[in-house]
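Blackboard transcription, Thursday session:
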Amino acid sequence: MDVIMPQMGETVAEGTLTVWHKKVGDNVSSSDILFEIGTDKVEMEVPAMADGVLTEILVAEGDTVAVGTKLAVIEGTGEAAALSPDAFEPEAPKADPAATPVPVAERPERDRSMKLSPVVRKLLAENNLSHTDVTGTGRDGRIKRGDVLDYMKGGAATVPTAPVPAEAPGAVSAEGITVVPFSYRRKMTAEHMVRSKATSPHVLQAVEVDFSGVNKARQAIGADWKRQEGYSLTFLSFIAKAVCTAIKDFPHINGHIEKDHLVVFDRVNLAIAVDLNFEGLVAPVIRDADLKTVTEIARATNELARRARAGELTPDDMANATYTISNNGSFGTLITAPIINQPQVAILSTDSITKRPMVIEQDGEDLIAIRPVGILSQSFDHRAIDGSYSGAFMRRVKEILEGKNWVESVS
Amino acid sequence: MAELTYREAVIEGIAQEMRRDNKVVFLGEDIGKAGGVFKATVGLWDEFGDLRVRDTPISEQAILGAAMGAAMTGLRPIAEIMFSDFLAVCWDIVTNQIAKSRYMTGGQVDVPLVIRTANGGGVRFGAQHSQSVENWAMMIPGIKVVVPSTPADVKGLLAAAIRDPDPVIFFEQKALYATKGEVPDGEHVDEIGKAKVVREGDDVTILALALMVPRALEAADRLQAEVGISANVVDIRSLVPLDTQTIIQQVQKTARVVTVEENPRLCGWGAEIVSIIAEECFYDLDMPIVRITTPHIPLSSADELEDEMIPSADRIFETVRREVD
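(Written on the board underneath:)
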């Protein structure tokens, strides 16, 4: 089989053979890197794409030759090896789609079972999946559109006629352990969390907030609210309102980090993390939350949570958030260090609010009073802002929550 | 609703429009006293008389030339070309005159005429009287192409074609003339340019026209019953204008598409539609597009060979079963 200089892109006519990784007489297999080439646009390693023995090298290292020039000869079984499954990865080299290497004169026959249809490639790419995640139930194990959709709906496809993929090491069921395969949502969450931690240097800051003022408002209208609306008016809506108000003074909190710059938004699209009864986490968005009142935020939050639990959210409901609040208060946690919802600048956790003895000053005298107190903690991305900015923002949130006349704002 | 045959629906559609508008006239070979060679015009001459229902000499060029002149001077003629094969005889008048006049006069001249013609095979008429030539007509800019598969569509679309301000070629499939179906009572006018989903299914969309629609439906029922494939069947109904929205929606729904065409394979209407699908929704496809057609050869007059060449319900069933996994 002749090895030829591959076309590296439509506008590239020649390339320089920079390194031979094999010498005449070496055994080569199809996945071995055979040589490297460079052009003015790109450098790349080229695999042999065939099994056999390298019998001839016709172009020396450093030579620049035209595309299509015969570079070497591999003699072997005469049959080209099947392309590796990696060749069908939807996220294969993205830089220049025209630069697919074609180093051998004959293209090997593709394994039919590995054929991915356009819609399957699209679905896999859009959802960050690999074809290896999905079990194909079509002819010869082909992955059909329905297989990907089934996988996304409820984890691994379970079709008895399909070949069972080998289980990953460590995932073998045995006595005393239960293997819990990650659902699609779990995988997506895992990927996002790892990426966020790898991307953003997180810094955690927390403030202690006295919620007495908020509580007065809740006591003033809480009973009527619950009767009319069917759910409680929680602290969350007040905290959200205070955050939106504080963002007006600290706009860089409300942004997205893009490469080397910060995009700051005029409006606050507030994501609220909703737990799906331990089955995962979603963060639907209250649009223009800064234009909403406390009660409007309460209604919007309740509606999003209801739709989230009913499985009615669409991708649009999750899109374009500018800041996120994660509410862990109901579990009685004291403080939570949240992970930033990329590409946002910061995320706030609200934890339990409990009655505690507080030292307060009244008429020049220090007294101990019983107050509802909770900790607000924010993780911020140190690339975008510093601790002073974040800290000042947190102080502002605390001031608003403690100082504002909330009874007035809900009546 | 009354049950009519496809041929009775032709009569009803023409009569409905001739009663409504005395500018509607009808001309062709043996359409008058004889009631048409396919008996699809029986009773019209009796009702409307010599002046409005005219038998012509055996000259397709004369029929369409006269119809065009009548249309340009204020009438709304319906012209019958007995066999669609003979459109070839008058192609200059159709393609160079009728289809172009509105454009070449800058919109000053309308040509509101309908060319009705018996199209397609399956009735042992041999190569020159059995062709399915809707694809010829589809290629001509400036003319609408309507191809109904049911009596209700014949009546409603024929009425719409007669009322249309532009020339329409109306292909009636001769093997369908005896088929029956419910037709709405009273005035019935449909809309040209709308495809119809005639059977809902999830696994594959079958696009069909005319005689291929009942065959696709029969195949779809068997696919469901015998192999559990749920086929979605779309009656294209109109090639020009083509309802690309419905076609693309339905293809996106099932991600798989099969065309069933009676016209010969090369440049059949399915080729045009699949090119649109490939351009517009390639990334929604989960299977290579499949075309089931008559082969690109003159149709045989031998019974067995004619049956072999024109796509049958069996062929549709087998092909879809083989291709859909």
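Lecturer's comment: Residues 188-410 of chain A form a domain with the Chloramphenicol Acetyltransferase fold (CATH 3.30.559.10).
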